Amino acid sequence: MSEPDVLTRIDWVRQGCRLLAHIADEFARTKPFAGLSMATGIHLEPKTAALLMTLKAGGAQIIATGNLNSTQPATVDYLRNQGIEVIGAQTRDAKEHGAFLDSIIARRPDLILDNGGDLFARYASSPYAGLIGGTKETTSGRTRLEPMRPKIGLPVLVINDSPIKQFAENRHAVGQSLFESYLRFTNRSTNGKRVTVFGYGACGRGTAACFRNAFSAVSVVDIEPVTALEAHLDGFNTPQRGDAIRSADVIITVTGHPDIVTVADLPLLKDGVILMNGGHFPQEIAVDAMRTHPSVGYVDGYAEEGIETLVLDDGRRVHVLGAGHMANLAGPRPLGNTVESMDLGFALQARCLERVASRTLDSSACVIPVPRDIDAAVASAYLEIHR
């Protein structure tokens, strides 16, 4: 009997991305991106490697960089070994990360795969000839780019506005991965914990449901009255904001907006509370301002665990996971969302980039949802594989 191969997590993930594998086989024949350069600014982790290899199979010349804090060195090494150019490395320094993005857009790519709107925002401020268009992954990026439509004026398909992305990844997978991340970071029980979830969009719904299913007492805070009513009718507590903060053992932000929990909330926080962010950008919890606030005497750090503890002058301790970065791609052995959910989401990415590269869309498709025929085709293909 021969010795077994020593495989990696990237190998495991690529084996599980069955939909992307089918698309890669097709792209290897059809070459929809032949002769085109493609810039990507997206979390560089094993599931992204499966997507980028699929696009490479279609003939794309890829120049990639990651997002703030989430770049995984093993994935960078893998991509470079596969002939994909990667600019930069893991960093929490926004200025350094910005320089990576500047280097990417300076290459004047033909297509852009964006996450958070960083690359398209740079294009809008300094446009160049030859960009065909691209895709945008998140709600936060769509909100950022909508006012820039006149300056962009090119097809940009928003993956997050697909119903598939909303229920498969945002509701199911984000909730599962944030729950997993809480356990992974803290090794603490959820039973009987009072958990406050800020935001009741798709990600908030999934997060609230996962913690309730793990026997936590979950409260939801959302500034939209209709959304808060939905949470109430779904059986969650919907207290006033201050009461929700005071009572919480765990606070989770999943809104896509900055300054959800700030230094003004320090007097309200319970001793031992755990703060955790699930949004794309790290500003939902104002961690930097909290660290330097006069009421914080000192900060303890559990470096290997990705936990820091703010010790207030009155003795209260506030625990922050992953420095306020997106928890499911931070801390020890970050896994992100489930393989199957990202297989679906990245299949949407691949098909949307294929559509943009076909040059059959015009400026009326600037920052719009995934076309319905692509949603239907991806859903049908996934069901055929998994039935």
Number of strands: 14
Evaluate the radius of gyration. Answer: 21 Å
Distance between the termini: 34 Å
Largest sheet: 7 strands, parallel
Fold-level CATH name of the largest domain: Rossmann fold
Order of strands in the sheet with the most strands?
A: 3-2-1-4-5-6-14
Q: What percent of residues are in strands?
A: 15-25%
**pLDDT under 50 segments (min length 5)?**
none
Please write the string of helix (H) and strand (E) elements. Answer: HHEHEHEHEHEHHEHEHEHHEEHEEEHEH
Provide a count of the helices.
15
Molecular shape: globular
Task: Give the overall pLDDT as a whole number.
Answer: 95
Molecular structure report:
It holds the Pfam family AdoHcyase. Its cofactor is NAD(+). It comes from Rhizobium rhizoryzae. The protein has 387 residues and is of the alpha/beta class. It has 2 domains: 9-154 and 338-386, Adenosylhomocysteinase-like (Rossmann fold, 3-Layer(aba) Sandwich); 168-329, Rossmann fold (3-Layer(aba) Sandwich). The protein is 42% helix and 17% strand. The strands form 2 sheets. The chain has a 7-stranded parallel beta sheet, with helices on both faces. β4 (111-114), α6 (118-125) and β5 form a beta-alpha-beta unit. The radius of gyration is 21 Å and the shape is globular. The model has no long low-confidence stretch (mean pLDDT 95).
